[in-house]
Amino acid sequence: MQTQTKSHRPLRLIAVVLSLGVAVGLGASADGYGRAYAAKSPRTPFQCKKQFLTSEGRARCFAQLPGADCDHPLIAEKAGDTTRGEHQYFRLSYHGEGPGDGSVEESYSYRPASPNVAICPHGVVFKVSLLRDENHCELRHHDGHAEEYCSVEYDTKSIPEPSSPRGGSFSYYLTGEPRKTAYLEIKGYFIHPPWAGRSK
């Protein structure tokens, strides 16, 4: 996936810079600011324990962690030989071959990496996009500011793939004309979350 984003932030950026300056002036480092910001939305059991002192608060925090359920899943992506996201929880394989004209028969297989991880119902989606010759840019609004989003991809189609909690496989033929790119997205959850029973 080839994307770029450029930010066009309003004067609000000055307030953020001033806030950072005050934080640094009070002895906080930029790294400390990053950790404090990340702590607002914990991603690990350790961050939940650090942010919440009561067992009830920690239990609510654990319920939001990646892998807690299919509303808060582990997400991995496979694009050809490249893997992204939380792929350590899955076994993802890819094989592609074609006649040499840009067309490729792509074969994927996927399964959890351990018996404690299951694939979510409707948790396997293959995303196929057409490719332009040049980047196309558009402004997208997010969190009160506009970002310039540029990509050579367009007309993305999401194709749900049938799967069981223990995995599956499929093949897809990518044509050379029109040119396409694709990747597999897989979502899963912990059957018994590793942090269960650790709220105290």
Features:
single chain; 200 residues; alpha+beta; 2 domains; six-stranded antiparallel beta sheet; three-stranded antiparallel beta sheet; 4 helices; disordered N terminus
What features would you describe in this structure?
The protein has 200 residues and is α+β, with helices and mostly antiparallel strands. The chain has two domains: 13-42, no CATH class; 43-190, no CATH class. The chain has helices at residues 12-25, 30-39, 45-51, 55-62; strands spanning 3-8, 74-79, 82-85, 90-97, 104-112, 117-142, 145-160, 168-174, 180-190. Strands 1-7-6-9-2-3 form a six-stranded antiparallel β-sheet, with no helix packed on it. Helix 3 (45-51) packs antiparallel against helix 4. The longest helix has 14 residues, at 12-25.
Summarize the structure.
By secondary structure, the protein is α+β, with helices and mostly antiparallel strands. The protein has four helices and nine strands.
Helix and strand topology:
Blueprint lengths: L2 E6 L3 H14 L4 H10 L5 H7 L3 H8 L11 E6 L2 E4 L4 E8 L6 E9 L4 E26 L2 E16 L7 E7 L5 E11 L10
Antiparallel strand pairs: 1-7, 2-3, 2-9, 4-5, 5-8, 6-7, 6-9
| Structural class by secondary-structure content | alpha+beta
Oligomer description: single chain
Q: Summarize the amount of helix as a percent range.
A: 10-25%
So how many helices? 4
Q: Major beta sheet, specifics? A: 6 strands, antiparallel
Strand and helix order: EHHHHEEEEEEEE
Q: Say how many strands there are.
A: 9
